[in-house]
Amino acid sequence: MFRKLLEYSRFFLVLPIIGSLLLMIGVVLMGLGMILVQEWNLLQQGEFSLRTAKELTITVIQTIDLFLVGAISYIIAVGFYKLFICQDEAQLLKRVKIEKLADLEYKIIGVVVVALVVGFLGKAEQAADTLALLQGGAAIALVIGALCLFLKYLGPSEK
Predict the structure, then answer these.
(1) Contacts of 101 (CB under 8 A, 6+ apart)
(2) Where along the chain do its domains lie?
(3) What is the largest distance, in Å, between two alpha-carbon atoms of the chain?
(4) pLDDT for 67-117, tens place per residue?
(5) How far is CA 88 from CA 1, 78, 122, 139, in A?
(6) Cβ neighbourhood burial of 151 (10 Å; 0-12, 13-18, 19+)
(7) Is 119 strand, coil or helix?
(8) What number is the average pLDDT over the span 124-133?
(9) pTM above 0.70?
(10) Mean pLDDT across the stretch 125-134?
């Protein structure tokens, strides 16, 4: 009986899968909306200067950060689905190869590293204090270094 309970309780993981997919849809739509509103405002103003170009660049970097959150959400949803719900190899989701939890961690860490870099570039564009920017960059570099060490020594053995 306990085995059956454990076997069927895995279907509760459909809830985080649905939540991750809703998050992915929400942040992608929000990112598209941010880009469209920014572009529309620039076209209405008719001002094509260095200042407006910087504003657009910052919006694009922030939007890319949102899209990365969407990508992480999608990878989590697919990973949970493949790990706990349906492990059939004939499924449509072959583009995301996840067979073990370590595979899911590896993919998420890769996207997190890119998100950290993109976030830092957005802050670098707006930075007024060079020392604070350098300290922030060093902190991000330490986090990325720690994640790389994690992947090298504790991550999946086959890549």
Answers:
(1) 83
(2) 2-153
(3) 70
(4) 888 988 998 888 888 777 876 655 545 556 666 777 777 777 888 888 888
(5) 25, 13, 41, 42
(6) middle
(7) helix
(8) 80
(9) no
(10) 81
